[in-house]
Hints:
It is a single chain. The chain has 202 residues and is mainly β. The chain folds into two domains: 35-137 and 174-196, Type IV secretion system, VirB10/TraB/TrbI (Lipocalin, Beta Barrel); 138-171, no CATH class. Helices cover 11% and strands 45% of the residues. It has one helix and 15 strands; from the N terminus they run αβββββββββββββββ. The chain is elongated.
Amino acid sequence: MKKIILTLFLILGIASFSYAEELDNVQLPMRDYDGIELPAGTFIPIINTQDISTEYCPEGYKVKFIATNDLYLHETNIIPKGTEFFGYIEKINEPVIGTHASMKIKINKMLLSDTFEIPIKGYIYTSNNNLIGGGISEPAEYVKVPHFQQRFQGRFWTTRGPTLQIRPGGKRKMGEHTRVNAGEDGLIILTAPAWITHTLTN
């Protein structure tokens, strides 16, 4: 009887060992996660964390922004509130007579709260081709232009004396430097699709 029991244990041990060897060579099924693509043109609301000025910040100056809202795609929170965005001043145009200074700020990385980094391509958005500043400076002179007014009396039009109107002249003042204040709200616009391969879970 003991021999039979011992034989059965040996057979079971050999079978389980060979099954374990087979499992070592089997690829276990992985969690299906292909990543999520945020399309170019996506807007991300952000807040500025520092003063940025064309007066004292050179090209290449590093900047940082923070997401002010959760950004969902379907039911997935792709960019949680508090995500940090990093970039730099790509281009500065100095002030000249007639035009204020301007700059372009490029965004190249986002950092989630668990320190996972994702590269992105975007700019701080403005309606002027993402150029911050660059408006026309104040007039340097004003000219007086006579304006004649007419009024109707009975069957006739009569001309009253001229009224002087003050209009900007052709000369403009020297432009001023452009500044983005800390705490100022803005938008990042993606200029290329962003491949999100990592999301946070609660």
